[in-house]
Structure formats: C-alpha cells, structure tokens
Amino acid sequence: MHDPGPMVQEHAPEDQARNVEVRLTRAGLGLARRLGDGAGGLLLDRLLRILEARHPRAFAALGELPDARLLIDPVDAPAALLLRVGPGLALRVCGRDAEAEATVRGPCARLLDLLEGRIDGDALFFRRELSIEGDTALILALRNTLDGEEMDLFADIAAAAGPLRHALPVARRNAGRVLGLLGTARRFAPPPLRWGMAVLERRLSGPRQGA
Amino acid sequence: MNPFELICPAGNPAALRAAVDAGADAVYLGFRDETNARNFPGLNFSRAELAEAVAYAHARSVQVFVAINTYPQAGNLAPWQRAVDDAARLKADAVILADLGLLDYAARHHPELRLHLSVQASAANAEAIRLYRDAFRVRRVVLPRVLTVPEIARLNAEVDVETEVFVFGGLCPMAEGRCSLSSYATGLSPNKQGVCSPASHVRYEPRGAALASRLGGFTINVFGAGEPAGYPTLCKGRFVPGGGASADPAYLFEEPTSLNALELLPDLKAAKVCALKIEGRQRGKAYIAAVVAAYRRALDAFARGQPVPSLDLDAMVEGGSQTTGAYTRAWR
Ligand code: SF4
C-alpha cells in the first residue's frame, strides 16, 4: 500500500475553500446516487426550490424553454445530473450515458465555476476543457440564463438554512486554515492513521474517475 | 485625461454591472429581439432591464449605448422604430444604427438622441462618413475592421466625426459578403436577424480525439486533439479548396484568432481615434470582467505615459491566439 502523502496542497485560502466545496459537491452527487430516485430525488427537488427562491428570474426563464433534457456530466464525480428544462423543471442524478437532448462534460470544479459565472464558458470550450454535444441552442440558453444571475451555490444553500448563513463566510475564511491544520496533522500522523484519513476523505468525495 | 473612451459589451444585466465595475467608460447592449446583431437565446435586455442598466451606469458616470444595428425587414419597420423610441425614452446616451431609413427616423423623431453609425454600415471612406453626418447628424462612426492604421489616420484627418475602432475580441468584419455564407447555410441572416451561426444550427461532434464543428449540416472545421477550438462561423471555417483536390484544409477568409490591438495604442492615438471597443456581447460576465479590467489598467498606464502592461488574455480567446488584424496587414 502506498503512503497517500499529504493531499492538501499549499494554496490561497479561497482556493482551498473552493477545493472543499468541489469535494462536497462530488460527495453530494455520490450521496444522491446512493439514496436513489426516491430520497435522492427529494434532496435535489429541495435544492432546486432553494435556488428558485433566490433566483426567480432565471428559473422563470428556464421554465419557459421548450421541454428538453440536459445531461451535465462532471467527469471526475461519481454520478452525472439530468436537468429537465421547460414546464416540468426537474433535476435528477443519472448515469453518464443517460439519454438527453444535449450534454455538457467537464471537470466538476469547472462546471461549478460555470454555474456561478466565475469563469467564461466559451473560453473553457475554446481550451477544450469543456465539451458539448447535441442541442447547442439549449446549452447556450442555459448558459446565458445562468450567467445573468449572481449565483453562489453554497451561499444560496446556507442562506436557506437560516442562521447558518452567518457561518458560511467565516467557514470560507477559515477553510484554508483548517485544511492546513489537517494537512499538518496528516504529515505528522503515524502511517496507519494517515491512510485512514485519506480513505475517509475519499469516501467523502465519492469514487473519483479519471482524476 | 485619458485619450480614449473604453466601450465595453454587455449581454445581460450582470455583465453590464461587471463592465461598469471593471472600468468601462460606456457599455453597449441590445434589446432581446432581432433589432441587434447578437440575437441569441437567453441574451440581451428587456425594456425594464435597460432602465435599471441606465440607472446603474449613470450613477457611476458610465454611458449606455443601445445597438439597434440590424437591417429592418421590408414591411416590418415597427420593432426597429420602437427600439429607437424606447432607447430614447429610457435615456440611453446613444443608439448605434446601420440602416439609412432607421437613421432618418431617429434623426427626425429624436433630434436630441446621439446617433452612432454601426460597424455594420461599413462606412470606410470620408465621403460616406460626411454623408451620414450631414444627412442624419451622426456623431460617431464605428469603423469596419478592414482598415489599416494609416488608413484610419488619413480618414480622421479628412472628417470631423468621432471614430471608434474595435481593439479586442472576435474578428467579425461583417463585410465583403462573408455573412451571406452564414445566411446560405442556415436560412437566417446575421445582418437582418442578428444571428450569425445561430446555435439552433450549430452542432459539435466528437470524432475520436478530434472535434468537428458543424453549421446547418456543413462541417466548418475539425480541430485535432488538444487544438484550440472555435465557433463554426463560416467566415472562419477551414475548407478544402479545389473541390477536394487539395490535400490540406485551410482557412480561406479569416483565421479563428482574436483581435488584440493593445500594442497599437500609440498609433491609434496618433491616428486620432476617439474610442476603443471590446467585442463580445455573447460572452459571459467572467470574460467581460477580465478583459475590461485588463484594458482599463492598460489605458490608465498609457495615459500616464507608463509602459503598457502586456495582457495575458490568450486563455480567453477563440483559437487561443491573438492578432492585430487588418490594422497592420502588410499585404494591403
Ligand atoms: S459571417 Fe463572419 S463577418 Fe459575418 S457576422 Fe458571422 S462572424 Fe461576422
């Protein structure tokens, strides 16, 4: 068995906080898949309702699109998402080969950046970090609608959780420090404990493919 | 005082705020219909959004220009005229027009409204520009992207109308019949309906490690593994000339590179250009924030007589490479 070594690199605190959010997103996808369509579906419905309450304009626009399915495939996450736009707006976890009118594929971190308008989708596409297939108009409509919003997935969720919303900025500020401490602890921990921590971390993130 | 105004694109209200906050002097935008040349799904402004945009920009001393720059269809002038009326009513600082009839309408009905001539009108010589000035009181002309800097300097010496030139973004000359290729492939016109290579007709297909881009059933380009990709715009397609007899596909009209005229600031100043324009209303707000901020820094350094910082924007642009375009085209 190889020593996994320190998994957390020295990055700016925002990058480290982002790292945690990306891992949480992957873990969330893994969890929703394990819960199956019933409980997992309820979880994703709740997520959509939270986002809708915060971004009514974007959701109204998505509801007005013709009925279509978009496969969103974070290639390094345990599952993909199927977004149904139009009157029956819905979000579900699915396999990577689910049938859809259009597909967007890319690393989980990039897709999250795209959702929040932190990165330019065209630039990602030019650099071949993002691949798209199928109904280009559907992808463009979704991209333009989301880009018009100031979305922040974790802040939006935290805001819906009431008192937690005050905790998020603090958590983000401190994420780097906490991860740094964890990294140091891991470096000084005896090997069996170190492996245990890595396993735990991997379990949290779900199985990673191609990463 | 800065020698140039920085004119920046916005495809939605969030992009407008990004452009204003990043240091634009003016933001140009369009209504959500066929009256502007970037009529894409999910893009552009409703009337209410324009009102909010004007309030946000004016509170920060930034101007708003409304592009109504497609050519109205015969027998259906109303959407274009309404767009001009609404831009004037909602206190836009200028409208950017191309069509003669619409210029005439705006000049007659809104004598106070500042008129700019769109790049779509392709006014590239002093006689044409004087005509637009005398007939419709056009105050500024956006020059077509086919002129060299010495040609621009000669033009500015001959006319007393402000000139605006593109300095960054996709190369879309909108001239010389290229756009008709897009109309032919899709049945929809860039010049009349504002849709060049509309997404409804675009498909990307993986071919092993390569990526093919298609428009209306025609393959426009095939990008090899790792090669920077581009939109399937026909004027930037890679074709096999000679009915397939030639071995290698080649770019026949334009290459899918992006314009960056930053190194030409001293020449553009000497040529008496008044405003510099960034292309990209169809791009996301992250692009707008990055490009506008970079240009703001560069223009401020230039105004102070300091060396202009080189901008690392390759990662942002189509084809992953930049060019000074026609401004320095030696063979012209
Ligand atoms: S065909 Fe070329 S020149 Fe015409 S609108 Fe499209 S990109 Fe611009």
TrEMBL record, chain A:
Domain SCP2, chain residue ranges per copy: 80-147
SUPFAM superfamilies: SCP-like (SSF55718)
Name used for this protein in its record: SCP2 sterol-binding domain-containing protein
TrEMBL record, chain B:
InterPro entries: Peptidase_U32, RNA/ubiquinone_mod_enzymes, UbiU
Protein name: Ubiquinone biosynthesis protein UbiU
Pfam families in the record: Peptidase_U32 (PF01136)
Highest taxon of source: Bacteria
Keywords assigned: 4Fe-4S, Iron, Iron-sulfur, Metal-binding, Ubiquinone biosynthesis
Organism: Azospirillum isscasi
Cofactor(s) needed for function: [4Fe-4S] cluster
Residues given in the record as [4Fe-4S] cluster binding sites: 172, 179, 196, 235
Pathway participation: Cofactor biosynthesis; ubiquinone biosynthesis
PANTHER family in alphabetical order: PEPTIDASE U32 FAMILY (PTHR30217), UBIQUINONE BIOSYNTHESIS PROTEIN UBIU (PTHR30217:SF3)
